[in-house]
Predict the structure.
Amino acid sequence: MSNALIRFLRVFESEGGMARTPFSGYIVWTIIGLAILSLAAIASGRGSIFNDILQILLFASMALCYDYFSGFTGYYNLGFGAFVALGAYVFVISTNHGVNAVAAFVLAGVLSALFAGGVSYPLLRLRGAYFAIATLALVVLLQIFDTNLFNFTGGTIGLAVDVANGNYQLPLFVASLGFTIVAITLHHVVGRSRLGLALKSIREDEDVAESYGVNTFRVKQMAMVLSGLFAGFSGCLFSVYLQFINSTNILGLGFGLFPVVASIAGGSGIFLGPVIGSFILSGLNAVVPEIIAAVNPTLIFGPLVVSGVILVVVGLFLPGGILRTRSISRYAYLRPDRSITSHFTRGKAGDLDSGLKKSPNDSKIKSSSSPLVKT
């Protein structure tokens, strides 16, 4: 058991010889920026600002969890919302029946991970559009279960979230900020690990990766389980934020596609991409419907329409996402974090140049003397 755990943890070790991931030198300042923004929202005393920043944190963490699998493999998991919804339902049903909130939080993540691992066996045999369509069917499947198991899920009526009673907003905000920071850190760790190296090789050419000894199915399954685990955690926080869950809000198509669109728009496979995409998409969802309503009140321009328009624009003009545009990607390998980390660590001789460097693109993976992933 201990040997198996050690082997599992080793896949998260940083792999020597790998090129630095784009924008990895901005992780500390990103976390500091989110913390400052959160403190400003709390200190402002304005409910609208507080709610907007809380929503951005929740969506950003959810998009990061989606990116653990899809961002590194290139597989579009359109059924990611099913993992989030499952975690939300497990958390709400458990806490409504007297289970401790922390225990219900852990249980929701574990069951979502087990669900992801179970459905990975048939789904990961598919590729491309077939995989995307098959994963989207998971949301429809859960909607059917939600309707038929109304004694547990409330059916179309839904369930109230009992733990959302009282003064829960500030604890939820702090928990959301902490979870987002953890999600960012884990994304960075995966990108620099043996697991990330194997996932990127699959994204570039899965057949070639398999011919070099990578167990592509097992690697993809690990990433999907990891994504499902944190999706379940994200669903817990979202259920408290919503205060009420049913098949319309937590299993809605617009809700499930938000992390997909945010990741693609910002730049999938880069920790900063889902965060920036969530800021942009949340802002547009708040502003665009009001502008359309002011111009023509008869038009309904909801979040799903906004997401569709963004997908079309990104697909036509920004196929790699905002962070991969030429004007922004030129700053991808700067290391502004050194202005902070240099006070705590002693830099190596080879790390003295903190200026703009010509570094290999993140899609080009350097070879290593160690195997990609041993299973």
Observations:
- Confidence is low (pLDDT under 50) at residues 347-371.
- Strands lie at 159-160, 244-245.
